[in-house]
Amino acid sequence: MKIKSLCVQGFRGFNEERTIKFHDRLTLISAPNSYGKTSISESFEWLLYGITSKTETADSIEEYKGSSRNIHFPDSLIPFVTVTFFDDNNVETKYHGDLLEGDIVQRSVDGKEVTCWPLSQDLSKISKPFVLQHALKYLLLVPPKKRFHGFARLLGLEELEYFQQNVVSLCTKPPIPAEVEKVLKEISALEARAESQPTLEKISKNLKKGLDGYIDAYKAILSECESRIPPDTKDESIIPELMKIREEAIAKIFKGKIVLSEYSTEEKQANTKDEHFFLESIVDPFINKYTELVALATLQHILERSEFFDLGIKILAKDPQKCPFCGQLIDESLTEHIKSEHAKFMGEKTQVEALQKQRDEVKEFLASMKRRLVTYHTGHNDKSKKLLDLEPETDKLKAILVPKYQKHFDEVERVISLISSVNDSLETSYNKAIEALKKVEASIIDSREDASLVKALGEALAEYISCSRSYSQAIIENVASMSEADKILEHELDVLAGTEDITILIDFIDRSNDVEKCFRIKKVLESLKDLRKMVDQFCTNEVLKAISGELTSKVMEWYSEIKTKGDPEVHFDGFDIERTKKGDLKARRVQIKAKSYGKNLVSAVSSLSESKLNALGLCVSIATNLGSKSPFEFLIIDDPIQSWDEEHEVQFIDVIRKLVELGKQVILLSHNGRWIDRVRVGCRTLNGRYHEITGYTKAGPHITELPWAKGTERLKEVNAIFSDPNATRVKLQQAEEEIRIVNAELTSKLYFKIKGVTKKPHDLNQSEVRKILIKCGVESSLVDRITQTFETTDDAHHASEDYTAHRQRIRKYHGWAHELAQLVDDP
Amino acid sequence: MPNESKGEEKSHFEAKSLDDYINKLISQLPDPVHKELIKAYQGTNPLQSMEAKLGKLLLEILHSED
Questions:
Q1: How many CB atoms lie within 10 A of CB A427?
Q2: Which of A60, A89, A185, A799 has the most CB atoms lying inside 10 A of its own CB?
């Protein structure tokens, strides 16, 4: 893709809309400083990459926010940049970018909105088609690590660099899961304890070897254990035997443990269930069920009478005419009366039996409540029993822990006092609840049910639950501190009893699997150092391959193009990566080598002059640009010659020619008008386009396109060519081309002179020239002759490949052009 | 216009894709754990992926059968 034109409005130095047309080979733009020249290259950069390299490499991006929009551009309008590209088949494509708020680019191609440019490559992977001065300084005159980053970007290796940084970050500070960290700490503490015991020296030595020493360490541990226990002890009895030895030794000094047992999740859930049960049992349905039993007392006689009547009915069934109670004769009506009374009693008996069943249920419920209460209470008691058993032993405990562990002892005393207090409240309220429950049970047995007893039971249970909650809260809050105190006590007792080593041996056997796993984990973590080194070397090596070899040789080639004969032999000598004394690559440290008359200098940066560094930077940009597979066939070079003498300035003109000959469309910007003129002269036969920024106001830069060369200069050159008997076919074609250009320029001038109409010479083809000359009243035979000079080319001024220019024809054309020049009064 | 030769089409230092570099690195790593870690470098937050992989590997060791 090459650039046909650039249209900018409201972006950077451009306020009002401006369009610049470009030659397909060489365009020169000359402007004094601050006339908006850099805004031209920035327009391309911003459109293609969404950001300029100036902003990208700035130390503070904040300072550049909002700077893309021209400050004088009306708020109601949207700034934009449009670049029209064309390909080998001259097919044009318009890339348009609107600058939205937040410096966002809204892209469109030929009027259709797109999210990214439809290019065959990822732009981040290819060299940017810009050679910009501030970018060069960023690449070379920065610390080696930043330089590495600059080269990585230039060579499309940013992703690799980022990968390297990420791996280094992982390996330097690897994140370890909390669960793993906990076990590592515990085993580390165990190892430290072993190290403190002279008798366990062999074990410690082997443990220090990590996984490699694990088996030997455990052999040593086993050996130590065997030396302390009866000789024929079985393997599975080693720990119990050791524990027995330890406990016996410690018991001589102190009996007891500082223990508050934790509530497990299951216990907590069960307690919650029980508490709900106790609190929600003594409610109206139960109270009603209980108080209904009162009726039983009064209904008891009904049962007795119904039994009496049952017997009577049986006797009556055998002899219906005799009274079952007194034996006297009875008539039928009396028999019926007895039977009906019996029936009544049967009904009431059913009621009584139901109440009896209800009573049994209530009794059973109370019994189960009592059992549940006992279990619940016992569960709580167990949590603090061991700690409370210590209460009488606190003086002994003090002797062991104080003064070294005064703080812990004070804490133990405080907690014992607290637990003792809540435990007392718990016991009292428990006994009250049990008493109230017994009273309710007794009232049922005595048939003296009383609702106030059940209510009292409910209140007693509520009070008990409140106390149990306070109790369990006190336990939960102090489990950790008591556990810590117990560990200290265990340790101190070990010291006093001389059983430290036994405890350590027990712990090692108990946690042998954890020890092995910790060693394996540590081995992985240690190995990350090796991974870091390998990745560093790998990535640095890949960059080294990229910067040395092809890049270095290409940069050297271009560098030699800029060198002059008079240059002292102090030059750039290639790229490298710094190495350690061992010869390993130092990660991310690019070196720029230089030599002075064959001898290595410390570095190019410290030894080469600014002009040489400038030249080097240019060569690096050119080499990487030409070397990377890019869809862009253009190269924008902004102010390349800095701190150069005249000789080098001239030398660089050859570089520009060479770039054009290699097929690049070169767009060259410079504040040095004198040098731009030299470029024009030196590249005159390229017949490019030349723009001058002649002024700068609030509206933006004023850009004028000027002729590439004067008509007279061209005609002189034509004369020289057709006068040269050895002029090649290429030269003759060039001569014809010059005549056509002169004719187009003269036609444009005549049009302006006669009709006051401006028409750019580059835009004129054969038919346009004809029309204009006719409009200007040029004599028809001259019109025919002038237009004849365009016959051998197409509208883009290209001749066919097999065309050969004719010397005599050129002579004629030369004469006709002079005739036209006379009409224009063009000197 | 005079005919002029175009520049070389062949690219001199075209960067490979990151995947190519990573695959090349993996083939050079002797330690299988390291291979696993590097393979985990992917997605929108590749560093986080690697860290997660490392954590997973360490936990696997911790929870492995005795």
A1: 15
A2: A799
Secondary structure, 3-state, A246-314? HHHHHHCCCCCCCCCCCCCHHHHHHHHHHHHHHHHHCCHHHHHHHHCCHHHHHHHHHHHHHHHHHHHHH
Written as one letter, the residue type at A780 is: S
The tens place of each residue's pLDDT in chain B, 66 residues long, gives 333 334 443 344 566 789 999 999 999 999 999 999 999 998 889 999 999 999 999 999 999 986
Give the least confident one: A31-35, A562-566, A800-804: A800-804
A92-100: strand order across its sheet: A18-21, A2-9, A80-86, A92-100, A104-109, A112-114
**Interface predicted TM-score (ipTM) of this complex, two decimals:** 0.86
Q: Which of A753, A745, A747 is nearest to A772 (CA)?
A: A747
Q: Is A792 on the interface with B (CB under 8 A)?
A: no
Do residue B11 and residue A629 have CB atoms under 8 angstroms apart?
Answer: yes
Structure tokens at A319: 């002899």
Q: What is the pLDDT of residues A575-607, one digit of tens each?
A: 888 888 888 888 788 888 888 888 888 777 777
- Whether the full predicted model's pTM is greater than 0.90, yes or no, is no
Interface test with B, best of A120, A162, A166, A550 (most B CBs within 10 A): A166
Contact B38 A167 (CB under 8 A): yes
CB contact under 8 A, A125 and B15: yes
Cβ contact A801–B64 (<8 Å): no
Give the N- to C-terminal CA distance of chain B in Å, as an integer: 83
CB pairs under 8 A between A and B: 121
Q: How far is CA A73 from CA A18, A39, A42, A694, in A?
A: 13, 15, 17, 21
Kind and range of the H or E element at A14? none
Helix H or strand E segment including A595: strand A585-596
**Which of B13, B50, B55 lies closest to A550 in CB terms?**
B13
CA-based radius of gyration for chain B: 21
**DSSP character string of A31-56:** --TTSSHHHHHHHHHHHHHSS-HHHH
Instruction: Select from B26, B1, B53, B28 the least CA-distant residue to A24.
Output: B1
